[in-house]
Write a structure and sequence with these properties.
Number of strands: 18
Largest sheet: 7 strands, mixed
Shape: elongated
Distance between the termini: 24 Å
Number of helices: 12
Helix content: 25-40%
Structural class: alpha+beta
Length: 400
């Protein structure tokens, strides 16, 4: 039977970083990956460009996360400056885009992965190795005996990357409900006619929760940053766990198509414009507020003839226009689960030491990345979790 000091399970961003960090203090580290190559999900992030982190000041960064108190130590252990210099030392530099998102200058996630793999020179890496059991004293698959284990097997989304709901049963650790996160929504209505249209900087709401961002229409529903960030709030509000069942979703969302205007502001503008531009057809007038290709769909949905002139629109129709510009609703029938970007839920943080990532129930067992009950919105926030918790787990396991 082979023996190692530390085994890391999962060669995603958290697992690779854990193995690299552990190898700084230990010459006996093995990284086990069931795929034939590492980092499959990493290659998909940021549309293949790899939004590696978010460059907000660390205090503002932490405030983005529901689990900020748990993440604090790991974020200060592996700061953004330290993370980026890790790659810059090997010649890969970065650019900052809107909302402090950080991408490699080459805009290729493969370049990020290549450097990570280069840092594994002191790690024994095994591909096509599926961990099926971890028994007492950390014997893996009756083949490998280790002193310590770091579990970084990812979440339940994108199973083609190696993520699998079964990974949660590798240990007997307590779990929270496992749910879809950052997931597009399926609409009750066929949206084929407006597929590909983007609404920019609108406000999307679900009950009392609101998110600002772009909304993109697909043939089956709605996506884009505004929608997928709101989906975390929606998914958390619904009672279900993928360990037991698929969610039953039937709810309504609303889009504020004119967030820069109040209802009163629109009312006043309409009063003035409908008089001064009375011969203008409503479908042309709405170009002031809406994306051109969206206007016909919008007017059909609210039952107003697009060719009617402004001067001929009655008070009831005017109020209907205002109401729908401020709150245009869609009936949602489910989550587009095949496109969920992250997993909500996982290993219960109440039983993990945030200063080491070690289990408080099982000594020498560590967790990192998406397997933990940690998640953030789009914009580099989830890779930040993976790298920081992976680094902390690796350092902690190798120092004790």
């Amino acid at each position: 039977m082979e023996k190692y000091e530390i085994a890391v399970i999962g060669a995603g961003p958290a697992g690779i970083m854990a193995a690299i960090a552990a190898s700084q203090n230990s010459s006996s580290v093995i990284l086990l990956e069931k795929n034939s190559a590492p980092g499959r999900k990493l290659l998909m992030t940021g549309g293949g460009r790899c939004n590696i982190t978010n460059q907000k000041p660390i205090k503002k960064l932490l405030n983005i996360y529901p689990q900020k108190n748990f993440l604090k130590h790991s974020f200060y252990t592996l700061t953004n400056e330290k993370l980026l210099s890790f790659f810059e030392n090997k010649g890969l530099y970065f650019i900052e885009e809107e909302d402090n998102r950080i991408f490699p200058q080459t805009e290729k996630s493969g370049d990020v992965l290549k450097i990570l793999v280069d840092y594994l020179e002191n790690v024994d890496v095994r591909y096509d190795f599926e961990v099926k059991s971890i028994v007492d004293n950390f014997i893996i698959n009756d083949e490998i005996m280790v002193d310590k284990v770091i579990v970084a097997t990812g979440g339940a989304t994108y199973p083609q990357t190696g993520c699998d709901i079964k990974n949660y049963s590798l240990t007997s650790h307590p779990l929270t409900d496992i749910k879809y996160g950052l997931v597009p929504l399926i609409s009750e209505k066929d949206l084929s006619d407006i597929a590909g249209i983007t609404l920019y900087d609108v406000i999307v709401s679900y009950k009392k929760s609101k998110v600002k961002g772009n909304v993109l229409f697909s043939h089956v529903g709605l996506t884009g940053p505004g929608i997928i960030n709101l989906s975390n709030i929606i998914s958390e509000s619904i009672s279900y766990s993928l360990l037991e069942e698929e969610p039953s979703a039937d709810f309504e969302i609303a889009i504020n198509l004119c967030p820069d205007f109040t209802r009163e502001g629109l009312q006043n503008k309409f009063t003035i414009d409908f008089q001064s531009k009375g011969k203008t057809m409503i479908k042309n007038y709405l170009k002031l507020f809406l994306t051109n290709r969206f206007i016909d769909f919008f007017l059909d949905e609210i039952g107003i003839d697009g060719e009617i002139q402004l001067s001929r629109i009655d008070k009831k129709s005017k109020n209907r226009l205002i109401e729908n510009l401020k709150s245009f609703t869609f009936e949602i029938t489910g989550f587009n689960r095949d496109l969920a970007k992250v997993t909500i839920g996982g290993v219960d943080l109440d039983y993990v030491n945030p200063k080491t990532m070690e289990s408080t129930l099982t000594p020498n067992l560590y967790f990192a990345g998406e397997i933990l009950d940690l998640h953030g919105p789009t914009g580099g926030y989830n890779l930040k979790i993976a790298f920081s918790t992976g680094y902390l787990a690796g350092i902690s396991a190798s120092e004790k």
